[in-house]
Amino acid sequence: QGTYVPEIFLVTPKLQQMYTVGTDVRIGKSGKLSAEVAMSNTDLNTFSKKDDKDNLGFAAHVNYKGSVLTKSDSTSKQDKNQHFTYEVNYEFLQNRFNTIERFRDVEFSRDWNLGTQTQQYNQHLVQADRCYVGGGLGNLTYHFKSFIQDSVYHGFENGLNGNFSKKGFNLIFTSSYLNSSSLINSTNYIRPKADFYYSSAKTKGWNIGASFDYEINMFKNKGSDTLTSARYLWQNYTAYITTADTAKNKFRIEYVTRYEQRPQGNNFASPDFMAHTVNLTGQVNTVKNQSLNY
Questions:
Q1: What does the alpha-carbon distance between residue 107 and residue 104 come to, in Å, rounded to a whole number?
Q2: 71 with 82: CB under 8 angstroms?
Q3: Rounded Cα–Cα distance for residues 233 and 217 (Å)
Q4: Residue 227: DSSP 8-state
Q5: Minimal CA–CA distance to 121: which of 89, 99, 103, 148?
Q6: CB-based contacts of 236: which residues, under 8 Å, 6+ apart?
Q7: 244 and 206 in contact (C-beta within 8 Å)?
Q8: How confident is the model at residue 223 (pLDDT cuts 50, 70, 90)?
Q9: Distances in whole angstroms, Cα of residue 71 to Cα of each of 2, 81, 84, 95, 132
């Protein structure tokens, strides 16, 4: 009788396949319907027929987008048309479906406060966007997202994004609010972000602006109002001067202030971390056959 068994475990031969079929259909003048169905075949041991019942998995994706013209102005040299665009997405992944390559954003789990998951569930992802495009001024978009994993996770997100430009003044902003619930906790995740800058012939194409970026993420224990230590809050404020995107030689100087607040009781403490940073970056492309980054 010994402590070890004289065995060598061999790596089993594996099989992974994926089949997809899709179609696009035009509906009316501005509507488009897209649909795609996928099937994966994953066999962890091709030498054995045991447990082959879960080899096949299925997924589906449906998308519809369209637009509605609300005001037309054909007399102006600029685009003064005003219209709404809308888009609806639905995505289903069976718990046995296995992808060959990543198809979702790297930040997908963090965006939905999923944490680390070792088990696969049936997934339903829904997104609806409604965008208003105001002739020559900019656009404003509202979105709603829902992500559901069987009965273990439910997440709902609302967001508002905008992009406006008038007489050299530009405003770009994004914002989202996520409310989610899992078997362990519930979360509220708020992320506003904005960039305001001025660029015109007076500044010779240079952009002079300021921006801010927030993240407020609150975790509560399921069944109570107690915030967990996983919650966090940070804020970034930036002032900058940069060359135009079309400039051959790039230059940017910025001053960044960052605040972080640690959990305290059932809320956040006063900012206990503050950082000030000055960044100088650029790129020289006017030297023949050479470029310089700094």
A1: 8
A2: yes
A3: 6
A4: B
A5: 148
A6: 211, 212, 213, 214, 256, 257, 258
A7: yes
A8: confident
A9: 86, 6, 10, 46, 12
Structural element, H or E, at residue 110: helix 108-111
DSSP letter for 12, please. P
The helix/strand/coil state of 25 is strand
pLDDT tens figures, 98-156:
999 988 999 999 999 998 877 899 999 999 999 999 877 899 999 999 999 999 999 99
As a whole number of angstroms, the distance between CA 32 and CA 24 comes to 7
CA 38 to chain centre: 23
CA dihedral sign of residues 241, 174, 107, 259: positive
* 132, 69 contact by CB (below 8 A): no
Alpha carbon distance 127, 119 (integer Å): 24
CA distances from 103 to 83, 98, 99, 233 (A): 31, 11, 8, 29
Scanning the structure block, which residue is given the tokens 């305290």? 264
- The pTM score is 0.86
Q: How many residues does the chain have?
A: 294
